[in-house]
Design brief:
Blueprint lengths: L3 E10 L2 E11 L4 E5 L6 H8 L7 E6 L3 E3 L14 H11 L24 H13 L5 E4 L8 H16 L3 E6 L9 E5 L10 E5 L5
Helix pairs in contact: 3-4
């Protein structure tokens, strides 16, 4: 059974379509990347697929819950909280023991939110998102500010998450199609048809 189904989904912003008529099915353990140039609406598309943004048309259905990893201006670390404090607060909100042991994947537990690198923000966001045992996790800008080694490390963590049956949605300016099951390509708002979406599955080319 698909964990996420988008049917004719669309998002408008200031009378312009960012996403128009998106049809997508995501199975447990699959990874979907939303790509496109700056201004194409990658973050809006991601939030819409995670049911965190109101659709202008169509529907998105999720079986289970969706959790946000790092999404700038939406889901970010608290500047003065340490890594440990972020985790304890999230555990408390979920009604779980605050002293529960949680894998940190190399994060310094005493590092404060304001001092986290882009890579560390992504890792912390992923750690926090997995605490809710979601069916879907969404992360924004997985290539933003990360060097090649950090991107490889993050993708290894994402692979471990999908191996547990969790579907992962990410955004990136560009993506290696071999890393994901499906690529959703948004059109360039300066040159392309507004809202045009191209969906490619593994092995396909645009």
């Amino acid at each position: 059974m698909s964990v996420l189904t988008a049917t004719g989904a669309g998002v408008r912003h200031h009378r312009r379509w960012l996403v128009h008529g998106l049809d997508l099915r995501v199975e447990p353990g699959e990874t979907v990347a939303v790509t496109g140039p700056p201004g194409s609406g990658r973050t809006s598309a991601l939030l819409a697929l995670a049911r965190r943004l109101r659709l202008s048309e169509g529907s998105v259905e999720i079986v289970g819950t969706a959790a946000l990893g790092h999404v700038p201006d939406v889901e970010e670390p608290e500047p003065v909280f340490t890594v440990t404090e972020h985790i304890r607060e999230r555990l408390a909100l979920l009604g779980r023991r605050r002293d529960e042991q949680v894998p940190l994947h190399g994060l310094d537990p005493e590092l404060r939110g304001r001092d986290l690198t882009p890579y560390q923000r992504q890792v912390l966001g992923l750690v926090l998102a997995t605490l809710n045992d979601p069916a879907v996790i969404a992360l924004d800008g997985v290539d933003a500010g990360l060097d090649a080694a950090e991107q490889a490390s993050l993708w290894a963590l994402l692979d471990a998450v999908t191996a547990e049956g969790v579907a992962v949605l990410v955004t990136a300016r560009e993506i290696d199609p071999s890393l994901v099951d499906t690529v959703v390509v948004l059109s360039d708002p300066r040159t392309g048809e507004p809202g045009r979406v191209t969906v490619m599955t593994a092995g396909e080319s645009e």
